[in-house]
Amino acid sequence: MRHLKLFEYFSSDEINTIEELESKLKEYNIPYENWGKGYAKTVNHLLDELKNDECAIIDEQGYIIRYIEFVGVRVFYRDKSGVKYYLKEDRQVFKDGRERRRTMQSSVAEKMKFGEDADLSAVRGIKEELGIDIDPNQLIKRRDLFYDGGSQSYPGLKSKYKGHVFNCTLIDSQYKPEGYVEVQKDKSTYFIWEKM
What we know:
The structure is a single chain. Helix content is 18%, strand content 38%. By secondary structure, the protein is of the alpha+beta class.
C-alpha cells in the first residue's frame, strides 16, 4: 500500500478542486468512496476544511495524517433556584435526510483556524453554534488534551487532535430554555439542556 508523502509529492495549496483532492486520495488508497454515507462527511467537506485553514494534511512516517486543533466548551447555566443545567448536542440533521447522534465531551466543539488564539476560537464557536455573544471572562480554561485516532467524519483517514477545553456558565440573558439550533448549508445541529 502506498502512502502520500506530503513534502515530496503533495502540497495542500495545490488542491483547489474536488477532482484534485479525490485524485490524490485515490492515488494513495484512502477509502473515500463511502464518505458522505452514515456518519461520514463528504470529500467536499474535507476540501472546505483545507481551504479554510481548519486542518492540515501532513506526512508522518509515510502516512497521511489530518491534523486538527480545536476548542471544546462545556456550557452550563444555573437558574434562580440553584438548579444547574448542562448543554449538550442532541443531534445533527443533514439536508439529505441523514441524522447523526454523537456523544460529545463538550457542548460546543469548534475547529480552530491556524494561528488563532484558543480563547477567541471558543468565543467564536459559541457565537457560530449557539448564536450568542459571551464575554471572554465567562470562559474558564480546564486543560489541553492530545490524542490520535481515526475519524468518524473521514473513515480511513488517520487524524491527530490537539484540544483546548473550557467551561462557560451562561447568564440569564444568554439562556434559552428550549435550547439552540445551528443552521449550516449542509445540516442543522440541535442543542438541548440537561438537568445535572
